[in-house]
User: Which sequence fits this backbone?
């Protein structure tokens, strides 16, 4: 029991450290944006622009370089993961076992919530933050996440499939009713490697 508590405490401490690193990272980036604004002469919403200060601008750019690096790295990583997944799907379609799935028997469990999203990524968004009107950069949107699931017995073995789909639940059920059937591709060497053809939802 003591070992479990210690492990839990270590994980909690790591979560705190990771959260602290995130706050520090974005705090430095925020200071960088403020330095750039100050260097460009921004003195507030109701004040005239001041003189250009290239040192402040350069200082701000240095501070936001980690953000630019993180954005580029994230995009490259996502692109590589997408390409790898496309290869996996292509191989499954070519060599995998094909199982017909009756979409009318697929269970759909949905959950809905509201979420704030950023709608303004322009330079004016930074100005809104500076003047205390960061709410202008946000918009409240409705989200719906559907978890589809079904079980299929193949050669005496039962396979359980689950996947999450973000779209309106009624539209999803209409698509399923119209399509009626689709194909589940299964890797014969690894039954955990599966792909359900839902391309008709796009």
Assistant:
């Amino acid at each position: 029991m003591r070992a479990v508590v210690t492990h839990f405490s270590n994980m909690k401490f790591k979560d705190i450290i990771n959260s602290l690193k995130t706050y520090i990272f974005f705090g430095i980036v925020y200071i960088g944006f403020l330095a750039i604004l100050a260097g460009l002469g921004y003195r507030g919403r109701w004040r005239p622009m001041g003189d250009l200060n290239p040192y402040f601008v350069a200082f701000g750019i240095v501070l936001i370089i980690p953000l630019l690096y993180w954005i580029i790295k994230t995009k490259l990583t996502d692109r590589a993961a997408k390409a790898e997944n496309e290869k996996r799907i292509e191989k499954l379609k070519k060599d995998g076992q094909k199982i017909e799935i009756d979409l009318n028997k697929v269970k759909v469990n949905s959950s809905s919530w509201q979420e704030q999203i950023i709608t303004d990524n322009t330079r004016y968004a930074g100005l809104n933050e500076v003047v205390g009107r960061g709410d202008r950069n946000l918009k409240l949107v409705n989200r719906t996440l559907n978890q589809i699931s079904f079980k299929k017995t193949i050669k005496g073995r039962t396979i359980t499939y689950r996947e999450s789909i973000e779209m309106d639940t009624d539209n999803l059920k209409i698509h399923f009713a119209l399509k009626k059937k689709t194909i589940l591709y299964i890797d014969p060497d690894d039954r955990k490697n599966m792909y359900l053809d839902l391309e008709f939802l796009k």
Summary: The CA atoms of residues 96 and 187 lie 5 Å apart. The longest strand covers residues 138-154.
